[in-house]
Amino acid sequence: MGSEYDADLQYLLDKEYREKARKQFDKDMRQAEATAKVICRIKAKHGMTNVSGKTECPLCGDDVLYSVSAINGHTMGKCVNECIGWME
Ligand SMILES: [Zn+2]
Question: Which of 4, 30, 56, 73 lies 20 to 30 Å from 81 when distance is taken between CA atoms?
C-alpha cells in the first residue's frame, strides 16, 4: 500500500517545513529587534529634527542610512547590505 512510506515522507516534509519556518521566524525576529534598536538610537540622538545620517547596522556592522522628519519625528532607513529597512 505504501502508506508507511508516505507517512515517513510526510514526516520528513513536515520536519523540513518546520525547520524552514523556524529559521524564517528567527531571521524575522533578528531583523525586527535590530530595526527597533536602530530606531530607538536615532530617536534618542535626534528627537524631532529634520536630519539624515548613518549609524551602525546591528546585524552586519555596516552603515544604516536614515532620515528623520521634523514634522512628526518619523524615521526611515535602510542598511547598505539590506539586512534591515523600514519606513514609519
Ligand atoms: Zn546590515
Answer: 73
